[in-house]
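Hi U.,

Before I forget, here's the chain from the pilot set. I'm dumping it here mostly so it's searchable later in email.
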Amino acid sequence: MQDAVSELAGSVEAVLDGQPDGPEIDEAAAIAELWPAMERFLERADELPDDARAPNTDGGAIGHLLHADARERFHILSVVFPPGTSSGIHEHGCWGIIGYVAGLDEETRFRRVDGGTGDDEVVLEELERTVHEPGTISRLLPPDEMHHRVRNPGDVDGVSVHVLCKLPESHPHKFWDRDHHRLLPFPFRVLPGNRVRAEVELD
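Structure:
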């Protein structure tokens, strides 16, 4: 019997293998097909090892790389937000699906209202806030569902598992600089021990 992460990875591979040939996929259709796979994973989430549930060595938020697709189409992270920590408002430039494993994660969704598509003069407005409990699922789907912030409002670590497009280093990820109304590069860095952290790149 496969472990839970391997089963999830195999399901993602099967869904992407079934997409038409070419660089672009039907992201909405792929996420719809992936939803039952994430539900099955969450039923086995107690198999997630302790080191994939641990905060960073400094006590802060961190991701743990659980799987990287050999064809560079997706990766799987467990993400840990200790109490009170936040991701800041950011943008994912392609699809993702998130399953919530432990603790609480408050997800605030935003939409872009300035009418532009570039990285300058960016205005986002808040749409909704959802507190995700273990067993729930959310998605990332550009262009309308690509901006959010995650914050842990609870008193224990929030743990979630993210299936995201591409590999960590190539995942399109930007941070919203609210004060200057701009999007900044927010690349994932793979650190020793397969830890993954997003770091804002300033001008």
